């Protein structure tokens, strides 16, 4: 199990870091960036990595029931819509606040809903501790959200910048809805485990077979992401960005973002295979919680909270609460 947590920590680092690539990617427009991200990160890398570890993975997908495939892909499609909103929210309210709202909602709903869907509810003691951990995590997210609101209020009161009251409210709503879509991602991943079980029964190590779930789930996610970005690319004639001056740096940033993003999901999948029966529940809570702390660290380094002492203190307190929730959730997993 210790190896599972180590892989999860590695995945958390990548999950908390990939959002940096979604800022300052000029001369690309958002849609030019997103088309590359979708093709490389959501389609090519997941399939290629899975093929390297499980060369005949598609045969296991063919053996999976159609209902499972459609459900998992639809959950991925919902996530695809939410990921577009996630990128828009970062542009509107910044990395720290977007991650805070999005991942708090995603962690809570994405971890607990599969428990009830699949009837895999643990013993009363473990389940109680798990719920306490989830509640503590939501409290941490609330504190972080409060920090963002206080920061915006200080900007407005001082007149040191243009108030984004409207954009802040819209950004918070977008990030919240995106969190629900992100939760659907883990639900789809859990559904797709039927294909993983088929592969394991055929002798494939579960730590490798776990990647198959992402290929299935992300198929729906790719459709939503690519279609929307491609339509904008044609409508706005943004394809010209691909040959604009300085495009080389933007290409590198898009490719790096795509790689880092799926490294997070790949290591998460492997961690769930090692964490036991609650792997996709406990793992998702920790995955989102610790990634949020890492993203906040990047936000601080990027100067998003410079000059805002009081909101910054709230942000740090929120992170401390998230660390506490991570510990409680880990205890719940050890009790299961």
Largest sheet: none
Name the average pLDDT.
Answer: 84
Question: What general form does the structure show?
Answer: globular
Low-confidence region ranges: none
In total, the number of strands is 0
SS strand fraction: under 5%
How many angstroms separate the termini? 13 Å
Helix/strand class: mainly alpha
Order of helices and strands: HHHHHHHHHHHHH
Helix content: over 70%
C-alpha Rg (nearest Å): 20 Å
Q: How many helical elements?
A: 13
Give the key terms.
single chain, 336 residues, mainly alpha, 13 helices, globular
Give your account of this protein's structure.
By secondary structure, this protein is mainly alpha-helical. The protein is built from 13 helices and no strands. It has helices at 2-17, 30-53, 57-62, 66-93, 95-118, 124-158, 165-191, 193-201, 206-209, 211-235, 247-274, 279-301, 309-335. Helix 2 (30-53) crosses helix 11 (247-274) and helix 12 (279-301) runs antiparallel to helix 13. The longest helix is centred in the middle third of the chain and has 35 residues, at 124-158. The radius of gyration is 20 Å and the shape is globular. The two termini are 13 Å apart. The model has no long low-confidence stretch (mean pLDDT 84).
């Amino acid at each position: 199990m210790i190896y599972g947590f180590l892989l999860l920590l590695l995945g958390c680092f990548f999950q908390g870091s990939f959002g940096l690539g979604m800022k300052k990617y000029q001369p690309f427009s958002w849609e030019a960036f997103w088309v590359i991200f979708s093709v490389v990160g959501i389609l090519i890398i997941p399939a290629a990595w899975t093929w390297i570890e499980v060369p005949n993975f598609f045969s296991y997908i063919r053996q999976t029931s159609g209902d499972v495939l459609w459900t998992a892909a639809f959950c991925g499609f919902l996530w695809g819509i939410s990921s577009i909103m996630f990128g828009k929210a970062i542009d509107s309210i910044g990395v720290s606040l977007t991650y805070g709202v999005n991942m708090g909602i995603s962690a809570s709903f994405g971890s607990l809903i599969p428990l009830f869907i699949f009837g895999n509810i643990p013993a009363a003691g473990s389940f109680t501790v798990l719920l306490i951990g989830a509640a503590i995590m939501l409290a941490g997210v609330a504190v972080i959200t409060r920090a963002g609101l206080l920061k915006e209020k200080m900007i407005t009161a001082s007149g040191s910048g243009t108030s984004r009251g409207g954009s802040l409210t819209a950004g918070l709503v977008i990030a919240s809805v995106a969190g629900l879509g992100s939760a659907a991602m883990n639900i789809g991943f859990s559904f797709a485990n039927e294909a993983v079980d088929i592969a394991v029964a055929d002798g494939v190590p579960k730590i490798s077979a776990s990647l198959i779930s992402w290929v299935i789930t992300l198929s729906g996610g790719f459709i939503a992401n690519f279609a929307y970005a491609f339509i904008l690319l044609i409508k706005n004639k943004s394809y010209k960005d691909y040959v604009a001056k300085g495009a080389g740096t933007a290409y590198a940033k898009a490719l790096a973002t795509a790689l880092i993003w799926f490294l997070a999901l790949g290591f998460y999948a492997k961690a769930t295979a090692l964490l036991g029966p609650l792997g996709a529940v406990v793992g998702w809570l920790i995955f989102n919680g610790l990634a949020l702390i890492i993203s906040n660290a990047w936000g601080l380094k990027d100067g998003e909270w410079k000059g805002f002492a009081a909101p910054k203190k709230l942000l740090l307190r929120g992170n401390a609460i998230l660390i506490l929730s991570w510990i409680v959730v880990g205890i719940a997993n050890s009790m299961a």
